[in-house]
Amino acid sequence: MVIYKPTVSHSPIRDIVEWFTEPERVGYHYLALVLKCLVSPFVLFGFRVLVKAVLDAVFGELGPSPAHVGGAVATWSANLVKELCPVPRLHDVTGMFGQHYEATSVALRMLGARVGKRVYWPGTGPSIGDYHLLDVGNDVVFGSWAHLVTSDGTGSEMVTIGDRAMIADRACLLPGVEVGERVTMGSGALTQSGKQYLAGGTYVGSRGGDSVCLSTGRQPHKKVTSGSKRMRHQSSDDTLAAHSGSRNKSADNDGMGILLENGPLLRPKLICYLLLLVLPDPLCVLYWNVASISSVQFADFVIKRFLPSDLGIWYDVSVLFSLHFAAIAIFTTSQAVLVLAMVIGAKWALLGRRRPGNYDWDNRHIASVGRYSSRSRRSVASVTRAKGVLGLLTGTNWIVLYFRAMGANIGKDCALFANGMPSLVFTEPDLITLGDRVVVADASVVTHINTRGKFDLNGLEIGDMCSGQAADSSAVRR
What we know:
Blueprint: H1 12-20, H2 23-38, H3 40-59, E1 65-66, H4 67-84, H5 87-94, H6 102-110, E2 114-115, E3 127-128, E4 134-136, E5 141-142, E6 147-148, E7 151-152, E8 155-156, E9 159-161, E10 166-167, E11 172-173, E12 178-179, E13 184-185, E14 196-197, E15 202-207, E16 210-215, H7 249-253, H8 270-278, H9 280-306, H10 313-350, E17 357-358, H11 365-381, H12 388-391, H13 397-405, E18 409-410, E19 415-416, E20 432-434, E21 439-440, E22 448-451, E23 454-457, E24 460-462, E25 467-468, E26 476-477
Parallel strand pairs: 2-4, 3-6, 4-9, 5-10, 6-11, 9-12, 10-13, 12-14, 13-15, 18-20, 19-21, 20-24, 21-25, 24-26
Antiparallel strand pairs: 1-8, 7-8, 15-16, 17-23, 22-23
Helix pairs in contact: 2-9, 3-4, 9-10, 10-11
């Protein structure tokens, strides 16, 4: 692509632009963008795994240790691995295979964590202190924005999570914590360092440096029949296989209904599933780069067609940048409007209007279709740098119009996310009702409950003149 440089002439800026806008070089530019999107995450992840393997071979594998015993080398090694592969960079790799599922578990195992089977990972988080100090059992469910803290000022300790436990949204597990089987750490639960939480308990919030225990245990569940029979359930726990120490093939087939092949869940072929997950990212990278490349091509066309070549370099530069600025503004704005229209159209075409009710992952088509709709919405509408298209509309009437088009019932004079792009936008806008003069800041306005494979949708209403910082499913504010 760069063997032949621009020819020397009295108008070098024109020669450079003409050289860059040749179809062959534009094609190589787009190819480089696609390769960066598809290949570079795996190359970087492989480098991080290689660095960890070298550190383990030279200095030995890391483990729990008090702060005064670990030493500078152990601290440096742990911090190096953590800085090389933070959780957001890990999602660059796992997101191509569905970051909720086994790909995330495999990646964490390669970084030193002990992770069981059928673990459900959230789309955002959890934040992990040290990968090698994490021990997760089978059938564990994580909520968004959970924090797994493995090190503090006193040292580094394991964080152990037993089989079938649930770590809900914004739960925080501190160093040395052992979460027993079927324990539910509810939203905002803060554990105490080094404490063991007995099997079957339910904990929420924080009081006196520890979470509040709502219940201490449950009656033993009966063993679920073989995976060859269709699983039906009324409670969230019935989507999971009962505990068994067996490691035979039959035991390995037990698990959540979403992993079995005997329900009416919409399951495309593997190649179709991978295409649905992998293709949106490179397509979006290409889509959002069309404006910058096309504006240069447009400027080159106008300069060659309508401007004389003997006006001087400063005249060429001013005309080039003026045309480029005007063209890229028009193209990018058109793309933003088009992509929002595509997201709205995809929502109504794939999902229609959602209704309150039960939509379990293993027996409702809408749950599986919702995964692909959500994937398309995140990949397309949020790809414009850090803020995304919606981030440029926060606090204005335009974002209100967008959510109304997505099905939300929003009153007059409402301010949505006026302090900037929120950590979580409305996930199911057609189940949200906002009154007049409502202010929603960086709030989690969530209408779904996803507990161990049991997925419920509920309506949510916020009354007139309310200011929302956080709201959960079925909440009504007046």
